Automatic annotation (TrEMBL):
Gene Ontology CC: membrane
Entry keyword Transmembrane helix: yes
Membrane topology: Multi-pass membrane protein
UniProt-recorded name of the protein: Uncharacterized protein
Species this chain originates from: Darwinula stevensoni
Family: Belongs to the ligand-gated ion channel (TC 1.A.9) family.
Source organism, top-level taxon: Eukaryota
Cellular compartment(s): Membrane
Taxonomic placement: Eukaryota, Metazoa, Ecdysozoa, Arthropoda, Crustacea
Keywords from the named record: Ion channel, Ion transport, Membrane, Transmembrane, Transmembrane helix, Transport
Segments crossing the lipid bilayer: 170-193, 199-222, 234-258
GO molecular function term, any single one: transmembrane signaling receptor activity
Sequence ranges assigned to domain Neurotransmitter-gated ion-channel ligand-binding in this UniProt record: 1-169
Domain Neurotransmitter-gated ion-channel transmembrane: 177-288
């Protein structure tokens, strides 16, 4: 349970100890060497899960009868549903590995009264293991530790089981990683949409909103932590890139609709630089006539011919509208009549 920082396990606890008061001679009792008695009728050690995350400890234990041998050896089998504290590290989610521990020990009897040992056998204990759909068990081990407590001068003997689990990533890759990769690819396709279409900006905004929804989804399944998961970093980077893509689309659409406004030299140089970076060629025009504004608000052609402000800007002649008749040099006299203006139409695009 990553959200609550806990590990839920269903285990069988086998406790064995020797009680000197439960010894007998089998010859005195008809050869009886083993008996089964209720656990409440004999002494049992107060072994508990010390790092428990549950509040109703007694309700999760299924006490059974104890098996007592004539040598005084007592075996107690307990079925339990344990909920232990586990420090979940989601820094590399969903490619993470979790290391959890279950620490067992006596609650009030120190090492001078109870000494614990572990008969750890990986082959025997994993025989009844049922695999989880979310995690795979990589390894586990048992270790004996001494734990000091301020209440008592002597330490307490504990047995700590360390469990190493690895998350199965296929489900999370298909559900969270792959859709975001597809969304990023679709967002890049917005640059191929013509500027006349309104879907150029809409596609980028839709991709950004979808990424935000996915980010909110993983927030509900992960615990609040100062370490942002790897998937969350990927989502944040995708949102930033898609936002930049939307801003560039808005910029290109706004430039496209500036038909009657002459762009500044800086914007023209920026567009030329972007064209070189994207391996695009600049359009070539035939018989290009450039006009620049004078301080008095009038326009003047590059060769000194005066013109009205109606012909200001960039004038060009393309192949499609090229004049097929004989070319006659234009006079450099000012164009004052409407007839002179109409004579210029075949040369103006």
């Amino acid at each position: 349970d990553e959200r609550n920082q806990a590990l839920d396990t269903s285990v069988e606890v086998v406790e064995r100890w020797t009680d000197a008061y439960l010894k007998w001679d089998p010859t005195d009792y008809g050869g009886i060497e083993e008996i089964i008695v209720p656990y409440a009728s004999i002494w049992t050690p107060d072994i508990v899960l010390l790092n428990s995350a549950a509040t109703n400890y007694e309700e999760r234990l299924l006490r059974t009868n104890a098996i007592v041998s004539w040598t005084g050896k007592v075996t107690l089998l307990t079925g339990a549903m344990f909920r232990s504290v586990c420090d979940v590290d989601v820094s590399y989610f969903p490619f993470d590995t979790q290391n959890c521990s279950m620490r067992f020990g006596s609650w009030c009897q120190d090492v001078t009264k109870i000494q614990m040992e572990s008969d750890y056998n990986a082959t025997l204990e994993l025989g009844t293991y049922i695999e989880s759909q979310e995690f795979s068990l990589e390894s586990y081990k048992a270790e004996k530790i001494l734990n000091s407590d301020p209440c008592c001068p002597n330490p307490f003997d504990n047995v700590n089981y360390v469990i190493l689990m690895k998350r199965r990533t296929f489900f999370f890759f298909v559900s969270y990683v792959l859709p975001m990769v597809i969304i990023n690819i679709l967002a890049l396709l917005a640059f191929l949409i013509p500027s006349e279409s309104g879907a150029k900006v809409t596609l980028g905004i839709s991709a950004m909103l979808t990424a935000i929804v996915f980010l909110m989804t993983i927030r509900d399944i992960l615990p609040p932590s100062e370490n942002m998961p790897l998937l969350g970093k990927y989502y944040c980077a995708s949102i930033c890139l898609v936002s930049l893509e939307v801003a560039l689309c808005v910029f290109t659409v706004s430039i496209h609709h500036l038909k009657d406004i002459r762009l500044s030299l800086r914007i023209q140089n920026a567009c030329r630089l972007l064209a070189k970076l994207t391996c695009m060629k600049e359009p070539r025009f035939h018989n290009v006539i450039l006009a620049c504004e004078s301080k008095r608000g009038k326009n003047e052609f590059s060769d000194g011919i005066r013109a009205t402000s109606h012909f200001g800007g960039r004038l060009k002649s393309s192949r499609r509208h090229a004049w097929k008749g004989p070319f006659k040099p234009m006079s450099k006299e000012p164009m004052s009549s409407a007839r002179d203006l109409r004579s210029m139409n075949p040369f103006i695009d």
